[in-house]
Amino acid sequence: MSQRILLVEDDTRLAAMVCDYLGEAGFRLVIAADGAAATRQIGAVDFDAVILDLMLPDADGLDLCRAIRARSDVPLLMLTARGDPLDRVVGLELGADDYLPKPFEPRELLARLRAILRRRAAGAASDVLRFGRLEIDRGAREVRVDGQRRTLTGQQFTLLLALAERAGRVLSREALMDVTKGAALEDFDRSIDVQISRLRAAIEEDPKRPRRILTLRGAGYVFAKEQDR
Amino acid sequence: MRRLHLQLYVAIIGTLVAFVVAGMGVWHYFSAPRGAIWGVETASGLSAHLLTAPDTPDQERAIVDALAAQVHASVRLLGADGVAEYSRGRLPELDAQQLSRHGWTFTRDGAVFNQSMSDGRRIVVYPYRRLLMHGLHVGLILVAIAATLALITYPVTRRLTARLGRLEEGVRRFGGGDLAARVRVEGRDEVASLASSFNDSAARIETLVRSHQLLLANCSHELRTPLARIRMAIEKLSGADASAHAELTRNIAELDALIGEMLLASRLDAAQKLERAEPVDLLALVAEEASYYDREVIGEAVIVNGDAGLLRRLVRNLLENARVHGGGATTVRLERSLTAARIVVEDAGPGVADPDRTRIFEPFQRATSPAGGAAATGAGLGLSIVRQIAAAHRGQVEYEPRVGGGSRFVVTLPSAWR
What we know:
The complex is a heterodimer of chains A (229) and B (418). With 229 residues, chain A is α/β, with parallel strands linked by helices. Chain A has eight helices and twelve strands. Chain A has helices at residues 12-24, 35-44, 61-71, 85-93, 106-122, 154-165, 173-183, 192-203, and strands at residues 4-8, 28-32, 49-53, 76-80, 98-101, 128-131, 134-137, 142-145, 148-150, 170-171, 213-216, 220-223. In chain A, the strands form three sheets. A five-stranded parallel sheet of chain A has the order 2-1-3-4-5, with helices on both faces. In chain A, helix 4 links the parallel strand 4 and strand 5 (98-101). In chain B, a hairpin with a 2-residue loop joins strand 3 (103-107) and strand 4 (110-116). The longest helix of chain B has 47 residues, at 190-236. Chain B starts with a helix and ends with a strand. In chain B, the strands form three sheets. In chain B, strands 2-1-5-4-3 form a five-stranded antiparallel sheet, covered by helices on one side. A five-stranded mixed sheet of chain B has the order 7-9-10-12-11. Chain B has 418 residues and is of the alpha+beta class. Chain B is built from ten helices and twelve strands. Chain B is elongated, with a radius of gyration of 46 Å. At the A-B interface, helix 1 and strand 11 of A face helix 6, helix 7, helix 8, strand 7 and helix 9 of B.
């Protein structure tokens, strides 16, 4: 059964192209050209997801986002040309599940749409930290990149979680040692550096040129806050 | 219509008139006409003549009494030895020096006329009214009047200029970036009309800036939507060769980056202060950005208060500049002093010639470097955005030639208290 998507986009030519593209990927799309049409459609049909342009002729996308959230928890992907990081924060706070700036890679649109649908299918219980394509599921204690599970030992997961929960901050080896010692005792004689390089092997594209876990000579490690941009 | 210059003029004239009236009053109250002084002197002189003729004490007393009655004064007749022979009324005490002097002498209780006689005796006349005043006393009284007037006129001038003060305050708030700042229009003079024309200009500027911002936001939307369409269309060119595909994609990315830079630059221009500020671990942020250029960062942890997104942009632009113009950064370093953090990015490129060193931070200016602008990409906004972001954080960016050739960019940011 194909999933039904509502596309709220005032540019009809772009809407038609997105419609074609996602149609080929097996989605059924309904296009609403303005806020009023979108509100009407949402009332009438039960959609699996909504793709919403922030700039509409008759309504502010953020208001529409709020209105949609007030009546249903349908997965919401926001499209915007503003690209202002502040818009992103506001959009996500209003309940959008993800955000994609224009101009976007069609494949990325597809990937993000699938991701929010998958997340919704997996259930709302997910206690997940997301960094670009990396997902750290605290509930299930597992790590995924692009939805693919990566195997980690318990201690490696603890270490990764310690890093990720403090993303964007420099952590010394001693601090990491303290965090991991309490949790899992296996391999506790292994040095932090060895564990880090194993973590890199598991989650980095190229472990020799790390992008997610960075070494700071003489200071420690940093877990990058903005990944896969 | 009460004009400001008339108000000021009236205030000045009023003060002068008040001073003159007060001075006249003092003069009238404390002093008598010149004639009265002359009268005392003449009467005393004549009495002295009368008294030098051989008289009986009774006749002398009669002359003294007559003198006292005529000039309204206390009079004392002193012998040649300085002992009083006869007194009419009360007189202030005079010391030997004052007695030896002929003419007017000043005591605490007022002026006294001292008339010596040819036989060595003297008459001392002390008029009931103060006929003569000491110059110092006159001065003190005038100063007192002036001080009183000064106290009275202060609130008047304050009231006249208070509105100017409020106007100035409003103009300053507007200049500080509060576009909604307006001033109250009070009175009907030049200050009031200045206030109302300021309000008109402010409203015009506000409309202009707001529509400029709206235009930019719309521009972004209007430009990026066709870009998104092109990007979608490229995907359909499945048969096209890979290099053309890649070239198109790269051009779209460049256009997108350019639109983003222009928007950011004008937003930073309009904003006087940061939209949000939070403690940022600068070392981690710089390390993260440097990792995209495969560079390692040396330095100490520093916390600065700022907008993490903008600071990221600042570091990225410096690294991008080093990559494009200097063959990649050779050193990325973070230094910490007591009050500031310094981000140092060095490259071993051709460097910047002396005349271009301040110009490179201007928008749309690219150094006319010896290497030629062949490899130059971007709109030339990168370093100007670096400077804008540094300024928004109350910091600065400086260019220095690197030892051994190349460039060295130093961004100084005030660090947060830990």
